[in-house]
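Expect chain and fold; see below:
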Amino acid sequence: MTANKPFLIGVVGPCGSGKTTLTDALDSQGYATRHIAQEHSYVKDMWKRITNPDMLIFLQASFAVTKQRRSTMIHWTQAAFDEQQRRLEHALEHADLVLDTDNLSINEVREQVLAFIEKNTR
């Protein structure tokens, strides 16, 4: 990290795990974030090649919860979810924080991530 390059936080996870909501929350707190669409890429380390974040946060959610959250996605199937999980394996292995969002509110996700960032960037 240089004086010209801000500390960059990448956020990955399956559709419906809360990536957009989290990046919006972190951006509003002044953090530089990138919502990385790794779940849509066949290139296993696309998250690193394109963004190469200083910190990688992986938001996990079950198929049942993502289906609830994304009720407008009529073609959302277990097979599609499983394929996203496969595409996310490399990012999951390299994540600095893995957070299962199934039973967490938006505020709880935000607070847990902020606490992790604060603890690990001092």
